[in-house]
């Protein structure tokens, strides 16, 4: 039997601003030419010659890379989670996706942080395609971020759109701003968590989530 796909109402206005729409900048977006000129300035600031052969095409490549790396500014989490499935029978236990790889950029130094996310929710009447959970992480990660903010945004989006009994998000990442500069401590992992609903209020549910994310070896 084919799964039943229901067309649920469009996201309500009470959704958080970052959930219901792609962000709108308060400043005009520079042109492609202005972006490439800025890259040439940074190359010169670093101490190199932006006109030498190996660097002449670098501004164009960097501008193209930025469009890909930061495409999350043009994407909407509510749209990613809009298609939901209601044929789940009486299932109301964990839906958990572990070790979702992600990469983002630190908003303080604009260098990458890379890691894995673990996401779970306790459904009520409906679920979403598993790939869509990874998609939501990708949307938020492809913006200038802090890991703390990224974790909270992902949990909020899933909670507000799916309205489950609970949401749990754990992110583990290495920050290159810590391993390549400053204290230069490579291999250090930063862990952030956000628990909502039953995962926040019921220690047993939280413990079950943590046990599934990090099973005993």
Helix content: 25-40%
Mean pLDDT: 91
Write down the Rg.
20 Å
Ranges where pLDDT stays below 50 over 5 or more residues in a row are: 1-11
Can you list the strand order of the major beta sheet? 6-3-4-7-8
What is the general shape?
elongated
Oligomer category: single chain
State the total count of DSSP E strands.
Answer: 8
Structure description:
This protein has 217 residues and is of the alpha+beta class. It is built from nine helices and eight strands. The two termini are 39 Å apart.
Task: Give a brief description.
With 217 residues, the chain is of the alpha+beta class. It is built from nine helices and eight strands.
Q: What descriptors fit this protein?
A:
alpha+beta; elongated; 3-stranded antiparallel sheet; 38% helix; 9 helices; 5-stranded mixed sheet; single chain; disordered N terminus; 217 residues
Set down the secondary structure blueprint.
Elements: E1 5-6, H1 17-20, H2 32-46, H3 58-69, H4 77-80, E2 84-85, E3 95-106, E4 112-122, E5 127-128, H5 130-141, E6 144-145, H6 147-162, E7 166-175, H7 176-179, E8 190-197, H8 198-201, H9 203-213
Parallel strand pairs: 3-6
Antiparallel strand pairs: 1-2, 2-5, 3-4, 4-7, 7-8
Helix pairs in contact: 2-3, 5-6
